């Protein structure tokens, strides 16, 4: 087989390794990008005469992926293509790698290093490589691993460095390196970049005598290859024989119709007690909006509803925090959510809330029907009661250690460590999130949904429909369906919620997971009295799409459909669960309390238009794995993709038409090169439609940008500014070029509608079209703007985001992220060179960590854990014994420590309050730990020691001895 490549392109090495592994002969021909068909290098010519223009496609052709490994392999292949290589090109474009801000490449390497550390390795043996191994290794080894900054990478990402070294030593790699000599480092990055763009003459006199295979930009095949005669004929036919359809006139209310495509869209109801951040917005409401706008622009009957989830303990807790009633909290934050979504141009048909009479009516009716049909059980269960707060603790008010994976901060309903549901009473060492006290167990009668009884019909339904769910949704739901379901409690002893409609239990309310999904139905009822046409259709089909982040999958894939299936009342069930992974902020998590990240109310303060936010969030939408918001990357995408690519293309075309053709679309006589660019654009349009039909917003967006890239290269190669000054034939050709480009701009105005509605309307106004409409999204390219059509006044669509602005915004939303070493000064005594002072600091820091963990924000307590570890390390170095820093000391050691502290108090050292407080804190931790083990004979003597220490402190300070612990102990006896 033959490899065509430009000089120094390391991607050619990937193909060489693939051929070696496939035991195929290798022939390498070096060509320039100008000589390559369509400018795609490297390419692999097959014996059949076809060619593969995608390195990934070629590798997968040469090295078949085992079915059981395909998901993982595809994930990392896509990561290399869509994230790693663009990041490498971006950082190499300036001729140096700037690490002063730990840019995008750092977060990617951090992610890869973590996976290698956790043994999520791509290499299965020492001699067999996967296609992902080959692809990622060459990308890193040939570029960033060979520059000066690699020294820093070696220190920060040791597992990546080890992996690079291991693969480099493989015989097949060493043999391949001898086949193709190239210079690693910055030149390699430049070669990748040089082969990433179409050459200027791609569209001049191209021949169609080769049938070439498809390009694959991601592990899933996409057409980006050369053009066949059939495609050219179709373009010619569609260009003149089809009329551009109009959009339907909007109606109210939107209702489904028999024989038509009826799309019902919901986004996970956001909790009303907080301000949504960028991750929340792309996770549900923005994703739902992009899809809804697409469906409307396809003339589907489309209803998009959402609203705020207002019942539950989270609302109660926020009300206590702000000294308001739960209803006041709901009213306040409902308005905040509404304002945020309006600014982001989220086009709900109706945005409602769950604190409505309709919600109460439907929830209670569903419960009674389930009860009548035998799917509701009553059980007396043990619940956790916080005696200090004098209330039963709902699941989210309890944290503790997961009984399964031992994750220390599992919630009372679900463990974030392993993802499994847990009951609050099963937690080890439970603690109240409000006061941090240990709750006691009390019995209470509750209602349960009999999920095991529903399980057979649920599994049958899921087997039919899960093929249309997103990969993330399938992965999350699979263990639930595989491991078997258990009865799930649906009521709680709370005040804020929908009451159980049974007289003797009216003081109980429905738990939020049972209540909230019903909000989709009740909000639709608020929108229209004919809501059952959507939710209980009789003579027409409804396709239900639900958008959410992965943490909401169990409720939408298991709980809610189980309830509706058991009710057996003809409800619409979800066909498409469109769940995604998480969006992080600059390699950390969003935290309102620490001022880290951009929240909905912050976005408009940045001065960046809402459409740019929408574009970038869609561009980095975490469809297959967690992604990362990055300020530098935002500016780069705005300045390169929007300003220099898309905006530049449409502005050049329309400005040229204004100046040279009297603001009218000139006559067009299509020739081969014009047909080629239209055929390439047609491929992108087909892929755009295919992607959005499956709600893959990130992939579809890239096809929009590809069309404008084709247009830019086409215009650049045709040089209409030269032809307009030439012969009559040249002038006609210039007119054809501008006419084709104007029509591509019109197509782009429609395709942009779902993503950037304001920009779409502005572009349509510049095209001389109705700026109120977004334009129908067609299946085929046709004459959208006929010759003679009058265009409007062209003007730039986008503006540059300057580096200075980026830096200011990075600092503004970076929050307080002091390093542990800086904070140690406030934790360790000034002269902390003795064991006693360090032990006291460790005890104090340990208490702080436990208290902060109870409040649940990892971004706050994680740095304090690092301080605690540093303190322990210092003590170990001081004593040369790690045993002395174990916070779980044995009773004997504890007694010795306390005795030493007591002796010091009674000796010449005087009565030291600080030392006593440290000893009390340490002894308190010991008592708490021993009590969890349950042996009174062990912990009772330690309690006496603790009381004695407290008495000594009281005698010094004059304060009374607290009896709280004694009372609690007596109650437990």
From TrEMBL:
It comes from the Eukaryota. Its EC number is 6.1.1.10. GO terms for molecular function: ATP binding; methionine-tRNA ligase activity; tRNA binding. It catalyses: tRNA(Met) + L-methionine + ATP = L-methionyl-tRNA(Met) + AMP + diphosphate. Residues 834-889, 912-967 form the WHEP-TRS domain. It is found in: Cytoplasm. InterPro entries: aa-tRNA-synth_I_CS, Anticodon_Met, Glutathione-S-Trfase_C-like, Glutathione-S-Trfase_C_sf, MARS_N, Met-tRNA_ligase_1, Met-tRNA_synth, Methionyl/Leucyl_tRNA_Synth. PROSITE patterns: AA_TRNA_LIGASE_I, GST_CTER, WHEP_TRS_2. Keywords: Aminoacyl-tRNA synthetase, ATP-binding, Cytoplasm, Ligase, Nucleotide-binding, Protein biosynthesis, RNA-binding, tRNA-binding. One of its GO terms (cellular component) is cytosol. Residues 66-189 form the GST C-terminal domain. GO terms for biological process: methionyl-tRNA aminoacylation. It is an enzyme of class 6 (ligase). Belongs to the class-I aminoacyl-tRNA synthetase family. PANTHER family: METHIONINE--TRNA LIGASE, METHIONINE--TRNA LIGASE, CYTOPLASMIC. This is Methionine--tRNA ligase, cytoplasmic. The lineage of its organism: Eukaryota, Metazoa, Ecdysozoa, Arthropoda, Hexapoda.
